[in-house]
Amino acid sequence: MAAPASIVGGFERSLRECLSPFGFEVQPFKVGWYNAVLQPSLHLSYPEDTLAMLVLSAPQMFEKAFKPFLKNREFKNIRDPIDECVAHYVSRAVSQSFPAQKVEVNYDYEMLPSRRPRFLAQTAAHVAGAAYYYQRKDIIADPWGDKKMYGVCMHPRYGGWFAIRALLVFPGVGAEGLVQRDPPDCVQSQELRIELLERFNLRWQDWSYRDIVPVEERYSEEQKTYFNTPPADRLKLLQESGDLQICPI
Fold first, then answer.
1. What DSSP letter does each residue of 175-192 carry, written as one string?
2. Is this prediction's pTM over 0.85?
3. In a 10 Å sphere around its CB, with 0-12 CB exposed, 13-18 middle and 19+ buried, how is residue 139 labelled?
4. For residues 221 and 248, which has the higher predicted lDDT (pLDDT)?
5. Chain CA centroid to CA 206, Å
6. Longest dimension (CA), the chain
7. Angle CA(48)–CA(50)–CA(52) in degrees, nearest 5?
8. How far is CA 205 from CA 38, 162, 228, in A?
9. What is the average per-residue pLDDT within 193-219?
10. Would you indicate the residue range of the signal peptide (predicted)?
11. CA angle (183 as vertex; 178, 185 as ends), nearest 5
12. Please, are residues 174 and 28 in contact by the beta-carbon 8 Å criterion?
């Protein structure tokens, strides 16, 4: 059923009001926009006009959401603190914003039984107009031959200093009035696009690909230290800093 533009706008506004104070961004789109650029085996299994919303985290999420989430909590069998933090805020926002509406939430870290991700995050960000997904096909004179080169999204305000966290689908809610807008093309020159993909694929650890364009905000030094730490050692880092309390089993 197609929802009036006012309802779709209200859904977006309600979710944004719940998540923006904690460093998250929300971008609506139609399932059909996503399916149109992917092979059928990767499609989302909903009607083309179904409303979806993408949740991204901005640099300030670490300070506004993650650290408060850890404070005064004791965890048992914690898997990944960032993932649990995102799930906490997103699930709470969904419950508060849509108490009578079915919403299917997919997180960026979730996998299907086939070991494929539940959704292709960077593709979703591009079709939603949130961040431009730069790929090898965007290079006119490809200099890499047979070398595998992965694509990467660039945000118009944060460059590479952001993350795609969740996809929300609203079964039964059509978004026929929603107009698709291209994401801002912030890496316009061929030379810079080549440099971006080389930095991302060949030396992503030095963070430099994230600054390929001027940005409004970056990760804090504390946040960079956290993400530079191997995943297996992050719990220890948080415990040593006093940010995380592990409840004894």
1. -TT----PPP----SHHH
2. yes
3. middle
4. 221
5. 21
6. 58
7. 120
8. 29, 15, 8
9. 97
10. none
11. 155
12. no
